[in-house]
Each structure stands twice: as C-alpha cells, then as structure tokens.
Amino acid sequence: MTNAITYRTRWADMDPNGHMRHSAYADYAADQRLVLLAEWGYDIKEFARLRLGPILFREETVFLKEVHIGEEIRVDSRLRSVNDDGTRWSITHTIYKADGRVAATVAVDGAWLDLDKRKLTTPPVVLADSFRALPLYEAPVK
Q: Example GO molecular function term (predicted)?
C-alpha cells in the first residue's frame, strides 16, 4: 500500500509570493487519497460502477514551512478515525519537505455518497476495512 507519495511542485502550484499557493496543498492531499483508493481497487471506474463517491465535510490546512517551485515534497496519509460501519472517516495528510521538515498538514473529514440517491451511504466492507488498515495519525510532539 502506498501510504506516502513523492511529488515535485510545479509552476501551476505557486502564488505571486513565490511559494506554493494554499489550495495546492489540498490538491496534493486529494491526489494522494485517490491513489490510495485506486490501490485498494476503488478507482474512478469502480466508483462509477458502484454509484458511490467520497465526499468531504471539512478540510483544514495548517501551514508550517514554505514550499517553492521545483521542490520535492512527500505526502503521507494517516487515519485519525473511522466509525464502525465505515460511513465516516477522518484522515490527516502530512506534507513533508525533502529534508523531512513538515511543511503542512491537511486534515479531512469525509463520508460516502450514494450518487443516485444523493444521500450518505455505507461503503463496501472491503473499502471500510482498507481505511482501518491505514497507519494511525500521531500528532507531533511540540
């Protein structure tokens, strides 16, 4: 399982101040979630077949260090929580600079949407179990 992915930041990720724009952090976290889901057998085609999709209720980014164009970053996903039936979950993505320092954390709270009924639904057991298999998030000691 790919719990972490390394990326190289792009021109499109930058803001006029010369560092990574705020929403790019969320974009990298979302991409890493989609890679995880695909590795678990839940790619876009499978979600379309199941008429199921992930949704977010909350997304919070804490910025700690600047990231610049062309920098290598690593995005790591850790489970904060998942309820018994897997309908709701929380993940924290930690974005690391190449030297190992934490650049930001992106915490998300999500659930599963039935795409036909437009209502929350229970995911397949295998998908819920995959979330439970993620390493647990441990807040950094200050």
A: fatty acyl-CoA hydrolase activity
pLDDT at 140 over 70: no
Please tell me the distance from the alpha carbon of residue 115 to that of residue 117, in angstroms, as a whole number. Answer: 6
Q: What is the pLDDT of residues 11-40, one digit of tens each?
A: 999 999 999 999 999 999 999 999 999 999
Residue 8 is encoded by which pair of tokens? 């190289």
Domain ranges in the chain?
4-132
CATH of 4-132, picked from 3.10.129.10, 3.90.1150.10, 2.60.15.10, 3.30.420.10, is: 3.10.129.10
Give φ, ψ of 28 to 5 degrees. -65, -40
Predicted TM-score of the model (pTM)? 0.92
